[in-house]
Amino acid sequence: MRLPLLRGLAPLLLPTALWAQTIPVQEYAARRDSLAARIDSGVVVAFGARNPVGFARPAQLPAFRYLTGFLEPDAAFVMVVRGGKARGTLFTESRDPRRALYDGFPPDSSAIARQVGLAARSLPALAPMLDSLAARGLPFYALRDFESSDYASQDSLTRGASFVRSFSASHGGLEWHNAHPILDSLRTRKSPAELAMLRRAIAITVEGLKEAMREIRPGMWEYEVEALLEAAFRRTGGDGPAFVSIIGSGPNSTQYHYNANNRRMLAGETVVMDVGAGYGGYAADVTRTVPVSGRFTPEQGAVYQIVRHAQAAAERTVKPGSTYEAWREAARVVVARGVARLGLTEGMDATFDPPWADQCEAN
Fold it and tell me: Which of 280, 226, 217 is nearest to 248 (CA)?
């Protein structure tokens, strides 16, 4: 097959994910301008998600998507900032024409410019461009490609971490900064478009939970509930689960992040469903606890009501200007008082969460 024919087919075979943008291009540009204003002068280097091994559906990393809106894997982004004014370039990986028949054609530079408003170059041009910028003495800001910020301090093997390490070794004295805290502060304030997408993700999740709650019964397996929920997420227009679904029944309901979901639920037990649909890169996170038999026992109902009262106390505290500590404490007091009243702890001051390892002093 000749390459001209392949190019003719390209518009028909482009990955649909590239066009599935629900945030206006102008909003992405405004986000980059806000980051540039915080930095004033420097070079931002961001790394996108890698192409998954096998046949998993690729998902772009949140920070990279927030700045660029670009969903293709194996990309990088460089933004040069001088006096608060930014100029950004995407670096994308080419795809073998034969492989493109299987996986779809990657967008060319003109398609990228139209859809995300950024100039694009081939990925091999990344290092030479950064070499040139490093010689100018500008500070560098990294947005690395770890999957979760919970493990950022342990990241040493990702493409971003490896690149920063080797690039620093060849440019002695280069000043690197972590751009994630800056970007995180920008992401805390949501635009109307973002709020609409969050509400849609939540609505999809709630509908899935309602469907699951109607079907739960003794003898069902946890994975059946998982299947019901995740099918509902896709059927109603979501991206699928935003994180691994937690369906914990009986003893599994006491493990915060249990996700094997392979136990048969028994009469008289409760099941915790900690789930969330993704929608346009935004995630819901909703937890519901229900009785497997359809009704709580008196003991289960008493504990459940404490949690409901704690949530209501936190909701009354949440308002513009309030702190995370304030609403957490409002809920904690209600829980502490309630479980002490039931005789489950020695009193209001009892501690029922062990500290993290780094908070413990060595004996």
Answer: 226
